[in-house]
Design a protein that fits this description.
Distance between the termini: 39 Å
Number of domains: 1
Number of helices: 1
Strand content: 35-45%
Number of strands: 2
Helix content: 25-40%
Length: about 60
């Protein structure tokens, strides 16, 4: 499984394009954390808000 430690994007022609990334292959054990999903929902909302704001800025230039 590839684990990404850094991913960089850039706006090119109105599209978000990956420009660089750092990752490594991981073959160790995994543990599934099946909580209430609160953290995942919070992160998803933050990413959505950030992406929406970035899109608005990029399209208003």
């Amino acid at each position: 499984m590839k684990i990404y430690t850094e991913i960089n994007y850039k706006w090119l022609d109105g599209k978000l394009v990956e420009t660089d990334s750092k990752s490594f292959e991981y073959e160790g054990n995994l543990t599934l954390c099946a909580g209430d999903g609160g953290v995942v929902e919070t992160v998803t909302a933050a990413v959505t808000d950030t992406t929406t704001a970035a899109t608005e800025v990029a399209t208003s230039v």
